Amino acid sequence: MSAYKQRNLGIISLPTDIKYRNWSKDLTKWRIENDAQLAQYITYDNKYRLNKNTLAVYEFKQNPILGKYKAVSFDLNRGIVLSQKSTHAMRQGLMRHAVHCDMIWQRMLAREAGVDIYQGIVMYNVLYFSMHAFSGNFFTD
Length: 141
What we know:
This protein is of the alpha+beta class. It contains three helices and eight strands, in the order E-E-H-E-E-E-E-H-H-E-E. It has helices spanning 25-34, 87-97, 101-113; strands at 4-6, 10-12, 42-44, 54-59, 71-75, 79-83, 121-123, 126-128. The protein has a four-stranded mixed sheet, with helices on one face. 13% of the residues are buried.
């Protein structure tokens, strides 16, 4: 179960064994606390920030893993990252440190969804839309 290299992704530091294909919040907690083979992929970082390599984040604020870790992030380069910060704090850190964060999020979401950046994108209670979407003369008689 070593890390492997894929084109354009660099080194992947997540488990590749077939038994680690499926994850859920409950399964993540159980595996981290009980699966010794997973230890080589786990890192501890209380300053972890969400980034383009973050695949998923699970919140364990109400029932911390190992009694103290409130969040688990699956990061392509860092592996499984345990943090004492909550996912809300991680999101706030991203917002605080990213330049033009809304634009970056909009472009990333549009690229992942395969839509044009001029289309509106709704994510929970946030609407991302282009300031230039209706600047042209779209409506003519």
